[in-house]
Design brief:
The protein has 10 helices and 10 strands. The chain has helices at residues 14-19, 40-50, 63-71, 98-109, 125-131, 154-159, 183-195, 224-232, 245-259, 263-287; strands spanning 7-8, 23-29, 53-56, 80-84, 90-95, 137-141, 173-178, 199-203, 215-219, 236-240. The protein starts with 6 loop residues before the first strand and ends with a helix. With 288 residues, the protein is an alpha/beta fold.
Protein backbone atom coordinates (compact mmCIF):
# COMPACT_ATOMS: atom_id res chain seq x y z
CA UNK A 1 0.00 0.00 0.00
CA UNK A 2 1.36 3.39 -0.94
CA UNK A 3 2.10 5.70 1.96
CA UNK A 4 1.02 9.33 2.10
CA UNK A 5 2.31 11.36 5.03
CA UNK A 6 -0.75 13.64 5.04
CA UNK A 7 -3.36 10.86 4.70
CA UNK A 8 -3.71 8.62 7.75
CA UNK A 9 -6.09 5.66 7.80
CA UNK A 10 -6.77 5.58 11.53
CA UNK A 11 -9.61 6.48 13.86
CA UNK A 12 -9.43 10.25 14.52
CA UNK A 13 -8.77 11.37 18.10
CA UNK A 14 -9.94 15.01 18.14
CA UNK A 15 -8.42 15.86 21.53
CA UNK A 16 -5.00 14.63 20.39
CA UNK A 17 -5.39 16.46 17.06
CA UNK A 18 -6.22 19.73 18.81
CA UNK A 19 -3.14 19.37 21.04
CA UNK A 20 -1.15 19.65 17.79
CA UNK A 21 -2.86 23.02 17.14
CA UNK A 22 -4.90 21.53 14.32
CA UNK A 23 -8.63 21.98 13.79
CA UNK A 24 -10.39 18.71 12.76
CA UNK A 25 -13.62 18.90 10.73
CA UNK A 26 -15.91 16.38 9.06
CA UNK A 27 -16.40 17.99 5.64
CA UNK A 28 -19.07 15.66 4.23
CA UNK A 29 -22.20 15.08 6.29
CA UNK A 30 -25.93 14.92 5.52
CA UNK A 31 -29.03 15.83 7.53
CA UNK A 32 -32.80 15.40 7.32
CA UNK A 33 -32.83 18.30 4.84
CA UNK A 34 -31.36 15.77 2.42
CA UNK A 35 -31.49 11.94 2.39
CA UNK A 36 -30.78 11.41 6.09
CA UNK A 37 -32.86 11.20 9.25
CA UNK A 38 -30.25 13.09 11.32
CA UNK A 39 -31.52 16.31 12.88
CA UNK A 40 -29.30 19.35 12.48
CA UNK A 41 -29.37 20.14 16.18
CA UNK A 42 -28.27 16.59 17.06
CA UNK A 43 -25.40 16.77 14.59
CA UNK A 44 -24.21 20.08 16.02
CA UNK A 45 -24.42 18.85 19.61
CA UNK A 46 -22.41 15.73 18.78
CA UNK A 47 -19.82 17.74 16.84
CA UNK A 48 -19.43 20.06 19.83
CA UNK A 49 -19.11 17.13 22.23
CA UNK A 50 -16.53 15.39 20.05
CA UNK A 51 -14.61 18.60 19.40
CA UNK A 52 -14.83 18.63 15.61
CA UNK A 53 -15.93 21.18 13.04
CA UNK A 54 -18.65 20.34 10.57
CA UNK A 55 -19.71 20.95 6.99
CA UNK A 56 -23.36 20.08 6.36
CA UNK A 57 -23.32 19.12 2.68
CA UNK A 58 -26.86 18.13 1.81
CA UNK A 59 -27.64 17.12 -1.77
CA UNK A 60 -28.61 20.17 -3.85
CA UNK A 61 -30.00 21.80 -0.71
CA UNK A 62 -28.89 24.35 1.90
CA UNK A 63 -31.72 24.16 4.42
CA UNK A 64 -29.50 22.26 6.87
CA UNK A 65 -26.83 24.98 6.77
CA UNK A 66 -29.41 27.71 7.31
CA UNK A 67 -30.88 25.84 10.29
CA UNK A 68 -27.40 25.24 11.75
CA UNK A 69 -26.62 28.96 11.60
CA UNK A 70 -29.79 29.70 13.57
CA UNK A 71 -29.03 27.16 16.30
CA UNK A 72 -26.22 29.14 17.90
CA UNK A 73 -24.30 26.04 19.01
CA UNK A 74 -20.57 26.78 19.16
CA UNK A 75 -19.16 24.55 16.42
CA UNK A 76 -16.80 25.59 13.59
CA UNK A 77 -19.37 25.44 10.76
CA UNK A 78 -18.21 25.38 7.13
CA UNK A 79 -21.05 26.50 4.78
CA UNK A 80 -21.30 23.74 2.19
CA UNK A 81 -23.39 21.87 -0.37
CA UNK A 82 -23.00 18.68 -2.41
CA UNK A 83 -24.12 19.43 -5.96
CA UNK A 84 -24.98 16.41 -8.09
CA UNK A 85 -23.92 17.27 -11.64
CA UNK A 86 -25.96 16.12 -14.62
CA UNK A 87 -22.96 14.30 -16.12
CA UNK A 88 -22.21 12.32 -12.97
CA UNK A 89 -19.75 13.84 -10.48
CA UNK A 90 -20.78 15.09 -7.05
CA UNK A 91 -19.12 18.43 -6.35
CA UNK A 92 -18.60 19.63 -2.80
CA UNK A 93 -18.59 23.41 -2.60
CA UNK A 94 -17.37 25.08 0.58
CA UNK A 95 -18.06 28.80 0.92
CA UNK A 96 -16.30 31.40 3.01
CA UNK A 97 -19.65 32.89 3.99
CA UNK A 98 -23.18 31.61 4.40
CA UNK A 99 -24.54 34.54 2.40
CA UNK A 100 -22.45 33.54 -0.64
CA UNK A 101 -23.68 29.95 -0.34
CA UNK A 102 -27.30 31.14 -0.25
CA UNK A 103 -26.76 33.41 -3.26
CA UNK A 104 -25.10 30.62 -5.27
CA UNK A 105 -27.87 28.19 -4.39
CA UNK A 106 -30.66 30.60 -5.28
CA UNK A 107 -29.14 31.71 -8.60
CA UNK A 108 -27.64 28.46 -9.89
CA UNK A 109 -28.86 25.35 -8.08
CA UNK A 110 -32.46 25.90 -7.04
CA UNK A 111 -33.76 26.79 -10.51
CA UNK A 112 -31.96 23.77 -12.06
CA UNK A 113 -33.22 21.12 -9.63
CA UNK A 114 -35.33 18.24 -10.91
CA UNK A 115 -38.44 16.81 -9.23
CA UNK A 116 -36.21 14.40 -7.38
CA UNK A 117 -34.41 16.63 -4.87
CA UNK A 118 -31.46 14.29 -4.37
CA UNK A 119 -30.81 13.44 -8.01
CA UNK A 120 -28.64 15.30 -10.51
CA UNK A 121 -29.50 18.90 -11.36
CA UNK A 122 -29.68 20.15 -14.96
CA UNK A 123 -26.11 21.43 -15.06
CA UNK A 124 -22.98 19.53 -16.12
CA UNK A 125 -19.74 19.70 -14.14
CA UNK A 126 -18.12 22.43 -16.32
CA UNK A 127 -21.28 24.54 -15.97
CA UNK A 128 -21.24 24.26 -12.18
CA UNK A 129 -17.55 25.15 -12.05
CA UNK A 130 -18.19 28.10 -14.38
CA UNK A 131 -20.94 29.41 -12.11
CA UNK A 132 -18.92 29.15 -8.94
CA UNK A 133 -16.42 31.63 -10.41
CA UNK A 134 -16.75 34.97 -8.70
CA UNK A 135 -17.59 33.37 -5.35
CA UNK A 136 -15.09 32.85 -2.54
CA UNK A 137 -15.35 29.08 -2.31
CA UNK A 138 -13.48 25.81 -2.56
CA UNK A 139 -14.52 23.16 -5.10
CA UNK A 140 -13.70 19.59 -4.09
CA UNK A 141 -14.81 16.42 -5.82
CA UNK A 142 -16.59 13.93 -3.56
CA UNK A 143 -15.62 10.24 -3.85
CA UNK A 144 -13.78 10.96 -7.13
CA UNK A 145 -13.47 7.31 -8.15
CA UNK A 146 -17.23 6.80 -7.93
CA UNK A 147 -19.48 4.13 -6.53
CA UNK A 148 -19.80 0.67 -8.09
CA UNK A 149 -21.79 0.79 -11.35
CA UNK A 150 -22.42 4.52 -10.98
CA UNK A 151 -20.40 7.38 -12.51
CA UNK A 152 -20.65 9.53 -9.38
CA UNK A 153 -17.01 10.49 -9.53
CA UNK A 154 -14.87 12.64 -11.78
CA UNK A 155 -12.22 9.97 -12.38
CA UNK A 156 -14.83 7.47 -13.55
CA UNK A 157 -16.31 10.11 -15.87
CA UNK A 158 -12.90 11.03 -17.31
CA UNK A 159 -12.08 7.34 -17.85
CA UNK A 160 -15.40 6.89 -19.66
CA UNK A 161 -14.77 9.98 -21.82
CA UNK A 162 -17.85 11.71 -20.40
CA UNK A 163 -15.70 14.62 -19.21
CA UNK A 164 -12.31 15.88 -20.40
CA UNK A 165 -9.29 15.43 -18.12
CA UNK A 166 -8.87 19.21 -17.99
CA UNK A 167 -11.63 19.22 -15.35
CA UNK A 168 -9.00 18.40 -12.71
CA UNK A 169 -7.34 21.76 -13.28
CA UNK A 170 -10.60 23.49 -12.37
CA UNK A 171 -10.93 21.81 -8.97
CA UNK A 172 -9.24 22.93 -5.76
CA UNK A 173 -9.22 19.55 -4.01
CA UNK A 174 -10.23 15.90 -4.07
CA UNK A 175 -11.86 13.95 -1.27
CA UNK A 176 -9.13 11.40 -0.51
CA UNK A 177 -10.85 9.63 2.38
CA UNK A 178 -14.57 9.15 1.98
CA UNK A 179 -16.12 7.02 4.71
CA UNK A 180 -18.45 5.33 2.24
CA UNK A 181 -15.73 4.24 -0.17
CA UNK A 182 -13.43 1.20 -0.25
CA UNK A 183 -9.79 1.67 0.75
CA UNK A 184 -8.67 0.97 -2.82
CA UNK A 185 -10.84 3.83 -4.13
CA UNK A 186 -9.55 6.25 -1.50
CA UNK A 187 -5.93 5.36 -2.26
CA UNK A 188 -6.61 5.92 -5.95
CA UNK A 189 -8.14 9.31 -5.11
CA UNK A 190 -5.03 10.18 -3.09
CA UNK A 191 -2.87 9.34 -6.09
CA UNK A 192 -5.01 11.53 -8.33
CA UNK A 193 -4.64 14.46 -5.91
CA UNK A 194 -0.85 14.09 -6.06
CA UNK A 195 -0.79 13.71 -9.85
CA UNK A 196 -2.89 16.82 -10.43
CA UNK A 197 -1.44 18.93 -7.61
CA UNK A 198 -4.75 19.29 -5.79
CA UNK A 199 -5.63 19.84 -2.15
CA UNK A 200 -6.97 17.03 0.01
CA UNK A 201 -10.21 16.81 1.96
CA UNK A 202 -11.91 14.03 3.88
CA UNK A 203 -15.35 13.36 5.30
CA UNK A 204 -17.58 10.55 6.42
CA UNK A 205 -20.29 11.05 3.78
CA UNK A 206 -22.33 10.29 6.87
CA UNK A 207 -26.10 9.93 6.97
CA UNK A 208 -26.40 8.43 10.46
CA UNK A 209 -25.58 10.46 13.55
CA UNK A 210 -22.99 8.11 15.02
CA UNK A 211 -20.90 8.33 11.82
CA UNK A 212 -20.09 12.01 12.38
CA UNK A 213 -16.38 12.68 12.89
CA UNK A 214 -15.22 9.26 11.66
CA UNK A 215 -13.18 11.02 8.95
CA UNK A 216 -11.78 14.50 9.47
CA UNK A 217 -9.83 17.10 7.55
CA UNK A 218 -7.26 18.78 9.81
CA UNK A 219 -5.66 22.18 9.31
CA UNK A 220 -3.70 24.72 11.31
CA UNK A 221 -6.51 27.26 11.54
CA UNK A 222 -8.48 29.32 14.03
CA UNK A 223 -11.27 30.38 11.67
CA UNK A 224 -13.29 28.85 8.84
CA UNK A 225 -11.55 31.24 6.44
CA UNK A 226 -8.09 30.01 7.50
CA UNK A 227 -9.32 26.43 7.28
CA UNK A 228 -10.46 26.83 3.68
CA UNK A 229 -7.25 28.67 2.81
CA UNK A 230 -5.32 25.65 4.09
CA UNK A 231 -7.23 23.34 1.74
CA UNK A 232 -6.44 25.56 -1.22
CA UNK A 233 -2.78 25.74 -0.16
CA UNK A 234 -2.61 21.92 0.18
CA UNK A 235 -1.75 22.15 3.88
CA UNK A 236 -4.25 19.68 5.30
CA UNK A 237 -3.94 16.29 6.98
CA UNK A 238 -6.73 13.77 6.47
CA UNK A 239 -7.41 11.21 9.20
CA UNK A 240 -10.08 8.53 9.22
CA UNK A 241 -11.22 5.07 8.26
CA UNK A 242 -13.83 3.70 5.91
CA UNK A 243 -16.99 2.19 7.36
CA UNK A 244 -17.13 -1.61 7.61
CA UNK A 245 -19.33 -3.38 5.08
CA UNK A 246 -22.06 -4.07 7.66
CA UNK A 247 -22.27 -0.37 8.58
CA UNK A 248 -22.44 0.56 4.89
CA UNK A 249 -25.39 -1.81 4.51
CA UNK A 250 -27.12 -0.26 7.53
CA UNK A 251 -26.62 3.22 6.11
CA UNK A 252 -27.91 2.14 2.69
CA UNK A 253 -31.03 0.69 4.29
CA UNK A 254 -31.62 3.93 6.19
CA UNK A 255 -31.14 6.11 3.10
CA UNK A 256 -33.24 4.05 0.65
CA UNK A 257 -36.68 5.21 1.89
CA UNK A 258 -35.70 8.82 1.20
CA UNK A 259 -35.01 7.98 -2.46
CA UNK A 260 -37.88 5.59 -3.26
CA UNK A 261 -40.55 8.31 -3.72
CA UNK A 262 -38.38 9.85 -6.44
CA UNK A 263 -37.61 6.68 -8.41
CA UNK A 264 -39.07 8.03 -11.68
CA UNK A 265 -37.10 11.33 -11.78
CA UNK A 266 -33.94 9.47 -10.71
CA UNK A 267 -34.31 7.00 -13.58
CA UNK A 268 -35.15 9.82 -15.98
CA UNK A 269 -31.99 11.71 -14.98
CA UNK A 270 -29.86 8.60 -15.44
CA UNK A 271 -31.39 7.97 -18.86
CA UNK A 272 -30.62 11.54 -19.93
CA UNK A 273 -27.07 11.15 -18.60
CA UNK A 274 -26.56 7.87 -20.48
CA UNK A 275 -28.08 9.04 -23.77
CA UNK A 276 -24.90 10.69 -25.20
CA UNK A 277 -22.90 7.49 -24.56
CA UNK A 278 -25.62 5.37 -26.15
CA UNK A 279 -25.69 7.63 -29.24
CA UNK A 280 -21.89 7.53 -29.46
CA UNK A 281 -21.91 3.73 -29.25
CA UNK A 282 -24.63 3.37 -31.91
CA UNK A 283 -22.89 5.85 -34.22
CA UNK A 284 -19.65 3.90 -33.86
CA UNK A 285 -21.36 0.65 -34.82
CA UNK A 286 -23.02 2.29 -37.81
CA UNK A 287 -19.72 3.74 -39.00
CA UNK A 288 -18.24 0.27 -39.04
Amino acid sequence: MRYYKDIIFEKPLPKEIRRLDLLPADLHFHTRHSDSATRVRDALKLAARRGVGLAITDHNQIGGVAEAERQGIRVPLVPGIEVSANDGPHILLYFYSGSDLKDFYRRHVEKNRRNGPFTAIRLDTPDILDRREGYACIAAEAHPCGYAFLNRGVQRCVAGACIGEEVFSRLDALEVICGGMARSHNLKAAGLAVTHGLGRTGGTDGHLLHELGGVVTCAEADTVEEFLDAIRARKTVIIGRERPLVEKAVMGTAVLPHHLPYTVPILQARWERSLPRIKKFVQGRLNR
